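Co-fold these.
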Amino acid sequence: EVQLVESGGGLVQPGRSLRLSCAGSGFTFDDYAMHWVRQAPGKGLEWVAGINWNSGVTAYAVSVSGRFTISRDNAKNSLDLQMNSLRTDDTALYYCAKDAVLDFSNNYPFFDSWGQGTLVTVSS
Amino acid sequence: QSVLTQPPSVSAAPGQKVTISCSGGSSNIGSNYVSWYQQLPGTAPKLLIYDNYKRPSGIPDRFSGSKSGTSATLHIIGLQTGDEADYYCGTWDYSLSAWVFGGGTKVTVL
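Predicted complex below.
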């Protein structure tokens, strides 16, 4: 059974940094691209960033480009999201999502498994 | 403002059917597969439909998807109270080099 467990969320002041992690199990981690998707309180889903199987391709939403960095460690079956210069509108539940493909830039991606999310609150 | 447009809400009585539209453009729906996600209250999203119409194992055939041009549609027949949820369409956008979601549609069973 695929399991994705996020961690690292919490309360942080505007302008500060936070690093989220996602531990994957139950599947061959380096066979799939991975993504972060967030959901602000009472709002819809917003894709944040994606990384292909070997970290050769990364992509970001315009709203986080230049501030967030997605990375993965296939040896540890882990996915990270480094979030810098946080703003109040980054407040959201952050989900780790497994892609169904190796490389989303050359295939037709979709998210076939999701974690339960980790809450990030940016407030002074 | 989402790149993909969905109606904010739809409703119907138990046993009836609902359709949820997802409208996009040539750089997203028009040139890629669409997937749909169901988010029950207080839970993480779950894959409902992928590659426009395919269902993952365990998803009942009451749920179906279709695509035509730059629009996609999710169909739910035999509506049940347990279907009350938010539904999101999504696809890759080649112009943006980003994944895009619709704004979500809340399904209410009357």
